[in-house]
Amino acid sequence: MLFALGFLILAWAAVSLGGHNLTVMPDPRATNALSVQGIYRFVRHPMYTAVLLCGAALAFGAPSAIRWSTLMVCLVVLILKVKHEEALLTQRHPDYPQRMLGVKRLLPFVW
Asked: Which of these, 38, 100, 48, lies nearest to 74 by C-alpha position?
């Protein structure tokens, strides 16, 4: 169920973001527009949330030290990527800090 939730969040994020914004790199495309629709109303980086949910599903499904360690490393990398990406988005969109005020980064109502 956790993996399915992660996959559904990933799909919802891709649809909400639109093809013109979709990239695997943290650097926004030249034609980037801030997405404030769909899941982006609730969380700023839902694709990263989806990756973490799928990773947690794998760690819970077949627990091992390597899976939990990998998930923790992934979490640290994604947090660093969030901070880097938000700095780039602020450079591209001066109104981004204002938009960030009401929307959590990875987990709605938490962070």
From this structure: 48
Residues facing residue 104 across a β-bridge: 43
Convert the pLDDT of each residue in 85-95 to its tens digit: 999 989 888 88
* 87 residue type, one letter: A
> Token digits for 101?
């005020």
Q: How many residues does the chain have?
A: 111
DSSP line for 16-84: HH-TTT--SSSSPPTT-----SGGGGTBS-HHHHHHHHHHHHHHHHS--HHHHHHHHHHHHHHHHHHHH
What is the value of pTM for the model shown?
Answer: 0.86
DSSP 8-state symbol, 3: H
